[in-house]
Amino acid sequence: MFLHRQRPIYPWFFWIIKGRGTRLFEAVKRQIERKGYIARGGQIVDATLVRAPRQRLSRQEQALVAQKAMPIEWKPAKRRQKDLDATWTKKHGKSYYGYKLSVCVDRKHKLIRRLKTDTASTHDVQHLDWLIDPGNTCRDLYADRGYASKEREEALQAKGYRPQIQRKAKPKRPLSQRQKQRNTRIARIRARVEHVFAAIEAMGGKRIRPLGQARADFALTLMAVCYTVRRTVWLVKSGAIPW
């Protein structure tokens, strides 16, 4: 029988970890800033998909989950094995199930300045306003063609930013040679954020085991903290940042 009930309130330990990762990330940032670190060279925003364990649900169960409910016969032990927050999305023709990590990285030192986690189906541009770092000394903002929009670029310019967003070809209107050259120039700079995602992937950041948005947020934020600390240590040893 597929009677349903509303999803239960998160257990008490979910409320404990909720927001803890973000506070730790901000604490690390404050320590760097106290040492005189200033974000320079502009900022790069991008997002990456993070896979989560696929859920084996029947069609009736999927329908209930879509309604923010669950089958009434699910016992607490079974409920703990189900991820009702992760979502499906497609990228380059491939299907992904899980979450999304969006970051803002300063161009000069490749340190994560701001981050946001969400479900996989959330579009990258929905996090753009949150990710912008007003403290960067350069007003250039780099992004790939997924953020391209005339209205969005005008809004950024109105706020004093110089959007360096790659152009997107329209149907039956290929990019001009000048636009292709501009995209290549931006790609060389924007590629620096891919180094950040590669480092996080080495920590297991492309596939996570925790179930639920709260746990996924905590795990991904801790990976961002670890990357920021490791990157800062390398910069200090190389002499790029005086400590």
Structure, briefly:
With 243 residues, this protein is an alpha/beta fold. Helix content is 40%, strand content 20%. The model is unreliable at 1-16 (pLDDT under 50).
Would you kindly provide a written description of the structure presented here, covering whatever features stand out?
The protein is an alpha/beta fold and 243 residues long. It has one domain (21-53, 90-237): Nucleotidyltransferase, domain 5 (2-Layer Sandwich), CATH 3.30.420. It is built from nine helices and eight strands. Strands 2, 4, 5, 6, 7 and 8 form a six-stranded mixed sheet that branches. A hairpin with a 2-residue loop joins strand 4 (87-91) and strand 5 (94-106). The model is unreliable at 1-16 (pLDDT under 50).
Key features?
243 residues; alpha/beta; Nucleotidyltransferase, domain 5; 6-stranded mixed beta sheet; two-stranded antiparallel sheet; 40% helix; 20% strand; globular; disordered N terminus
Distance between the termini: 64 Å
The amount of helix comes to: 25-40%
**CATH architecture group name:** 2-Layer Sandwich
The CATH topology turns out to be Nucleotidyltransferase, domain 5
Q: How many domains make up the 3D coordinates?
A: 1
Q: Give the C-alpha Rg.
A: 20 Å
Beta-strand content estimate: 15-25%
The poorly predicted ranges are 1-16
In terms of quaternary structure, the protein is single chain
Shape: globular
Computed structural class: alpha/beta
Instruction: Please describe the biggest sheet, giving its number of strands, its sense, and whether it closes into a barrel.
Output: 6 strands, mixed
